[in-house]
Amino acid sequence: MVEHDVHAVAEETIAKYERFVNPSLARLFRYMGLATVEHSARGSTVTDFKGDEYLDLLGGYGMYGVGHSHPRIVAAVKAQLDRMAMPTKILLNKPMADLAELLAEITPGDLTYSFLCNSGTEAVEAAIKLAKVATGKQGIISTTGAFHGKSLGSLSATGRELFREPFKPLLNGFGHVPFGDAQAIEAAIGNDTAAVIVEPIQGEGGVIVPPSGYLASVREICDRKGVLLIVDEVQTGMGRTGKMFAVEHEGVVPDILCLAKALGGGVMPIGAIVAKPHLWQSFIDAPFLHTSTFGGNPLACAAAIAAIKVTQDENLCENAAVMGNRFLGALREMQVKYPGILAEVRGQGLIIGLEFTHEGYAGFAISELVNNKILAAYTLNNPKVIRIEPPLVITAPEVERAIGVWEKIVASAGDLAADL
């Protein structure tokens, strides 16, 4: 594509965003230096219409666990498309049954029954409804800074007022306590508490890693108090933290596990909950009590099955642990060297947050990353924090390239101090 055509494509796309999508979103893309048009992607590399290649350190906010356009995922979806794309909803759906069986095999403990949907927020909605109908109670305890989605039920669990306030009143019965404080959860549990919902690591909250033993303590409290534990692994699941599921780091088996994002292999949208058998009785008694037209469709299930197998076959959990340790080690050295710029580096595996001492430094870093053809983004709940959440297929040379760019950015950020 010739240069003037490339420019025209970008301008036309931005103009359509302004007229038909959201003008503020278009301005934000321009401001961040991202006014280009993505065209193709493979592995950890995204190519725009100009042919410029970007190293993807964001990974679609955790969606691209197995990388962009993994050939096995694409082939599985193409093969299923040739057979049948969407289900009849009347006859039995083999890909859905196969995926449910596979989820029961790979999830910890006695998690057995699955409900398949289309996204993370839908998975949380299903988990909340299951907890309420299984217990006959209404109360849900969540955490401050949590992000569980933006549909009405999941938004009631999400713990940031910026997203909640415009839509109040939200659902009754939701309370929020500080993340990482198991005793605060225990103190908040009342007679009408159905469940506690928690992320193993708060992604959008700023990549907040709780104290060691936190999940195990919450599990013990829920057991002792007769309350269900919902663990939201929409962002941390599928190998992101160095194990298939983050709960495995502490040997915790939740009552309900929420999945999405990387479950679709970066090719199809899919969400899921997997729950213990005794909770499923209400859904067994009334199997149409909670349903989804597109949930569990053959295309999405084919993608998810392939994504699980690729994650296992290519040892992506192990790669996430090794590459994550390399990233974290180098970035923590930078934090020690430049404490006036980097306040903290935290994470586990390949979900990493860099918290700057001033949001102006974070803005500078985003701009410089783009200038160096690297993609990253802020966390939604903290503009001082930039996340690193690349595809789990990222290679050692790609990690070294990224570390080198980060070193230059953090070192040069000090020049901004006088302006901040």
Describe this protein's structure:
The chain has 420 residues and is an alpha/beta fold. The chain has a domain at 92-313: Type I PLP-dependent aspartate aminotransferase-like (Major domain) (Aspartate Aminotransferase, domain 2, 3-Layer(aba) Sandwich), CATH 3.40.640. Helix content is 42%, strand content 17%. The chain is built from 15 helices and 15 strands. The strands form three sheets. A seven-stranded mixed beta sheet has the order 4-10-9-8-7-5-6, with helices on both faces. The protein is globular and about 60 Å long.
Biggest sheet features: 7 strands, mixed
Strand order of the largest sheet: 4-10-9-8-7-5-6
Fraction of residues in β-strands? 15-25%
- The strand count comes to 15
Count the DSSP helices: 15
What CATH first level of the domain at 92-313 would be assigned? Answer: Alpha Beta
Helix content: 40-55%
CATH topology category name of the domain at 92-313: Aspartate Aminotransferase, domain 2
Give the low-pLDDT segments. Answer: none
Helix-strand category: alpha/beta
Second-tier CATH architecture of the domain at 92-313:
3-Layer(aba) Sandwich
- Give the full name of the CATH homologous superfamily of the domain at 92-313: Type I PLP-dependent aspartate aminotransferase-like (Major domain)
